[in-house]
Design a protein that fits this description.
Length: 471
């Protein structure tokens, strides 16, 4: 039955479709192929999520080599949810890109854009489903290399600088990760994550495991833009094409967060190392700094996409704060915020791209009076911003409440206070947009009232509605 092969087809389908898109070229057919493949991936991920929810984890042995000797794809509720998030946001971004890519990338390079998007999707889905530490590294590089080029496709020359900075820091992160995996392999003799956990618990000397944990956390910390390892993110998100920025904001850092959580709680969860070293305390301190400092920096940005980028660093701080509790409610709240922030921030970047198309850019001065020139888009942006703040009735409120409850349950009421107080900082940068859009007059030469093309606005509004519905 074909459904039994969904774990591998989830990755293979976009991986094989990417070179096909390069061969057919053009604009319409590559777009149609990319959309169809991502829609199929979303269906497969949804079926896997339903299956593991009903029957428990699914194991798929690549080439019929049983684990731990061969590569295992292991699906449970957590990574099936991450895979579904990746597939759905890829589908939304590609649907949006039909019009935005023509304006931001040009017809002659669109087939390359769709091929790279498919490679990135394949890499991110591979990270989510693999149960092998080195295979995770391979998929990490597939997604990263395609992402560097996607960022460089931005229409401004600064996109090349942002992509180069992302390349350098991303390569450092990948190197740190693979060094950590190498140390774990020397200590345990296996690359299978589940088998590694069993063998690590039997290792007498904890020092290799501690060093490996440090390398892996630092490496994935760079990939997920953990404060203060976030230097690549603002430039990459601000200069990338709008559809790319939306997709990366919703998925790339979130999948790296999932990978970090998987290493921490699958490989180290049964071992004393994670309890004996102050990893949780260090992660908590960095998370608190991210929630306040990055959100504070966002207030003073003069470009809407850079504001959203720094906001992402702050929101990542909430997720890692949940992980730092090292409790089941904390991890569950963190995963819930992964989904919430993924959907909400993708919607906001798509809305920002729609405003850029009609208003000529995302510089703050261009957004003056946007509530009158693009009333539907501006209103949706405010709703998405309120979800970032955590206003009741939005997904942000649900996940922040879960984080605060997990903090109280873990005996860390100070963390709950951090969630509340940093939300006030988030309110300040959302208010900047409200003040510009509704209390300023449109600049001279502003377009007449209207919206971006329906294919762009519709996708962005659908994601915004999802952020409200999840609340």
């Amino acid at each position: 039955m074909i459904a039994s092969h969904f774990p591998v087809l989830l990755v293979v389908a976009p991986l094989l479709a990417a070179p096909l898109v390069v061969v057919v070229r053009g604009t319409r057919l590559p777009w149609a192929i990319a959309v169809a493949v991502c829609a199929a991936a979303a269906v497969m991920a949804a079926e896997l999520l339903a299956r593991v929810t009903a029957s428990g984890p699914v194991s798929y042995a690549i080439g019929n080599w049983p684990p731990p000797w061969g590569i295992e794809y292991r699906i449970d509720a957590a990574n099936a949810l991450v895979a579904l998030l990746v597939a759905l946001l890829a589908l939304a971004s590609l649907a949006y890109a039909r019009r935005s890519a023509a304006a931001e990338i040009g017809d002659e390079r669109q087939y390359l854009f769709y091929a790279l998007m498919l490679l990135c999707v394949a890499g991110l889905l591979g990270i989510a489903v693999t149960g092998d530490a080195f295979n995770l590294f391979v998929f990490l590089e597939i997604s990263s290399l395609s992402t560097y080029v996607l960022v460089a496709m931005g229409r401004d020359r600064r996109a090349l600088t942002a992509a180069f900075q992302y390349l350098i820091l991303g390569t450092v992160g990948a190197t740190f990760y693979v060094i950590g995996v190498g140390i774990l392999y020397l200590a345990t003799g296996t690359l299978n994550l589940a088998d590694m956990a069993v063998r690590l618990a039997a290792v007498g000397d904890p020092r290799p495991a501690v060093v490996a944990l440090a390398f892996i956390t630092a490496g994935l910390g760079l990939k997920l833009a953990l404060f203060p390892l976030h230097a690549w993110l603002p430039g990459a998100y601000a200069q990338a094409p709008s559809a790319v920025a939306a997709f990366l904001a919703g998925t790339a850092t979130k999948v790296s967060l999932y990978a970090l959580a998987r290493i921490w709680f699958t490989v180290y969860g049964a071992d004393s190392v994670l309890r004996d070293v102050p990893a949780g305390a260090i992660l908590a301190a960095l998370s608190v700094a991210a929630a306040f400092v990055a959100s504070g920096i966002a207030i003073f940005q003069d470009d809407l996409k850079r504001l959203l980028a720094y906001s992402s660093v702050g929101q990542i701080g909430y997720i890692t704060l949940g992980l730092s509790l090292q409790t089941q409610p904390g991890v569950a709240a963190a995963m819930a915020h992964v989904v919430n922030h993924g959907v909400t921030k993708s919607a906001l970047f798509l809305l920002a791209g729609a405003m850029a198309l009609r208003l000529g850019g995302t510089r703050m001065e261009r957004l003056a009076g946007a509530g009158r020139t693009m009333p539907l888009t501006a209103f949706a942006f405010v709703i998405g911003g309120l979800s970032l703040v955590g206003v009741p009735g939005t997904a942000g409120f649900v996940t922040k409440w879960a984080l605060a409850s997990a903090a109280f349950e873990a005996g860390r009421p100070l963390f709950a206070a951090v969630v509340l107080l940093s939300s006030l900082v988030a309110l300040a940068y959302v208010w900047r947009f409200v003040e510009l859009a509704y209390f300023r007059d449109p600049p001279a030469g502003a377009p007449p009232p209207g919206e971006a093309p329906a294919s762009m606005t519709g996708v962005a509004l659908a994601l915004t509605a999802a952020a409200v519905a999840m609340g």
